[in-house]
Amino acid sequence: MKYSSEIIERVRTAIDIVDYIAPFVALKKRGKNFIGLCPFHHEKTPSFSVSQDEQLFYCFGCGKGGGLFQFVQEYEKLSFVETIQHLARRAGITLPTTSEGEAADNEYEEMLEIIRRVAKYFHEQLIKSNEGKFALEYLRNRGLQEETIRKFGLGYAPKGWDALVKKLQEENISLPLAEKVGVLRRNEERIYDYFRGRVIFPIFSSMGKVIAFSARKIYEDDTLGKYINSPDTPLYNKSRVLFGLSFAKESIREKDFVLLVEGNADFLTVFQTGIENVVASSGTALTAEHIELIARYTKNITIVFDADAAGSNASLRGIDLILQKNLNVRIVQLPAGEDPDSFIRKFGGELFSRRISEAISFVDFIAQTLQQQGKFSSPEGQAEAIRMIVQTIAKIPDELKRAMFIKNVAEKYGIYESTLARELAKSFQKEGERKNTFANTPQQLQQEITQKEMKNTSSRQLNPAERDILRVMLEGSTELAHYVIEHLPVEEMCSLAQTMFQLLYEQFHNEGEIHVLNLFENLPEGEIKNQFGILIFKKQTYSKHWELGGKEILDAGLDQIAYAAIVFFHKQKLQKKIETYQRMLKMSNSEDTLEILHQIQNIKTELQTLNSSTSAKY
């Protein structure tokens, strides 16, 4: 669904950015701005700044910044359309919908309500019914506390084939929609309950809404599998959902790593010990979508493998997927026959925490796995093992990170780095990954080019003249911006300042004015956004030593500062010309000398004229 620019602007202006951010960040007034600890990375000294005047935020630590929409998208992990809808609800703004879109939205909301009420029904059956007592005792015997059972809404599905069907009919709930969300099934004869005689684990979306269920076997005569999960529905796709994420995401952000376990029981036991930065894959193979979901909150994943699963192809594929997404991965190995749930119940949470702190790199993990398989018992086996490690390293898009891992392997096994580098090149050629690894998308390529350019320009900060002229463009009138564009010799600024000025010029040319919010919101993270952030949020005073007509300007206005800065750049340009002619003079013959001296004199005259200038005209 698309919204008009008028609607988007109405939503944007309805909520003050400081009012929105304040509940999530403890903001303190400092000058015109507000500062606090960044919600997007862990820090002890505040580097997060919010401008109420410009309706912008920026973190000088991690580089994230933008307007209200960007904050909501980044913090709440919503799409742009979801952000508009979220803010519109908060502001009490009714968004226009097409009749077809409105019907689809209504059905989606109705399905969410159905599954919420089903979750409530299952929980009541566990806590209040006689049949649920056995299931409740089962959970208690597994070490789950009452608070955990309540917090995660654990439940029980009665044994009967139509207990839920009758409950839904009593409450006049649509059975076809209940079937659509996966709690009912239908055959030729009847519609019946999908979950029967099982402990129920509600599955939540990242926003904390129930969207599906996982049901565990507790009776001996149950002939179905240990776990039965909801099928894929309009609410739920198992490849895109991680169990427990809505409860864990704040801790994941704070600790900047996630602990990935397999089962729902593993998650609950780990979470109950106080380790809250944990999610579970619910027994399904790790997918690229799972990893992208994790990447919204952290780039660091620690996987807990039991001894049985550690060497499986699925485990190794999961590591490959994580590396391909340019995330960092470490592995915790548990003793044979133990999973996180059984390990904690047997040895305690403290020992489990120690295991996490002793997590090993993926290189060491693969090497240990191959060693257990006997790969290192012969020269041929060693070569095969190291080749497999190199092939895994080849999955990493980051060239520097690959190089460091190759160096580590070379030192550990006494192999020349050049030999491993050649093996790495073979991996690229064999799998056809070289192009994908380095080219990426056009946007990523542009970012790489920008970063390379910045290496040559960001080594020094903007000089006072560059800083002041850019601030004049941001803060001055439309007429003043037009004057600067007409008269500034842009080529005299450093590459970084030129790029920033070009962005301002393009916006002025396209929109007829400099709109700070629009400009900053659309900048990608990087050096340019960082420098604009400094200009906008760090309200430094303008340089105090500008001169016009040979006299220092006191209490200068923006027009005088702009004119003085332009004069400075023109004088710099003329001075460079003089230096060029002086070098030519040293190499010239007698015939050219007079002409060169004449040119130098003309330039000096121009300089004198500039030095005597006292005001700007526009």
Report the portion of residues in β strands. Answer: 5-15%
- Uncertain parts: 433-459, 614-618
Proportion in helices: 55-70%
**Main β sheet profile:** 5 strands, antiparallel
How confident is the prediction overall: mean pLDDT? 83
Distance N to C terminus: 46 Å
The dominant shape is: globular
Please tally the β strands and state the result. Answer: 18
Structural notes for this entry:
The chain has 618 residues and is of the alpha+beta class. 56% of the residues lie in helices and 11% in strands. It has 29 helices and 18 strands. Strands 1-2-3-4-5 form a 5-stranded antiparallel β-sheet, sandwiched between helices.
In short:
The protein is α+β, with helices and mostly antiparallel strands and 618 residues long.
